[in-house]
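Dear H.,

Thanks for agreeing to be a second pair of eyes. The structure we're designing against is below in token form, covering all 120 positions.
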């Protein structure tokens, strides 16, 4: 196993990308601190660090839309983490399956899978 001390955290955080294990769709980008990464490894459920709330959070703790981790990869520079996940419901807090639901022109190209007002 990679020594978590060898990862390159920026101000205690490392970039984390969640990708659907089956479809390979990129679902979201977030940050992890060491504790979030340790909890993710320990539980098999994605945990992240919320910069806006300044706290650890388990994906799906309020929405129920958890991410079960199937594999974890570290990039060549050891400054980013890729989580291959099984996504329950939507990954995006706006109700879309993926946070990447708009193209550069602003067109909605993603699938809305829940109404945030029903969840949050």
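And this is the sequence the design step returned. I haven't edited it by hand at all.
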């Amino acid at each position: 196993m990679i020594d978590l001390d060898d990862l390159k955290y920026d101000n205690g955080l490392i970039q984390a990308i969640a990708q659907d294990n089956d479809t390979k769709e990129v679902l979201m980008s977030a940050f992890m601190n060491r504790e979030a990464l340790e909890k993710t490894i320990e539980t098999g459920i994605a945990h992240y660090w919320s910069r806006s709330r300044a706290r650890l959070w388990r994906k799906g703790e309020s929405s129920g839309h958890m991410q079960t981790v199937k594999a974890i990869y570290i990039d060549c520079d050891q400054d980013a983490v890729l989580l291959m996940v099984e996504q329950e419901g939507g990954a995006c807090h706006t109700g879309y399956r993926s946070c990447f639901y708009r193209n550069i022109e602003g067109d909605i190209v993603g699938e809305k899978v829940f109404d945030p007002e029903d969840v949050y």
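Two observations from my side: The longest strand covers residues 67-74. The chain has a mean pLDDT of 96.

Warmly,
E.
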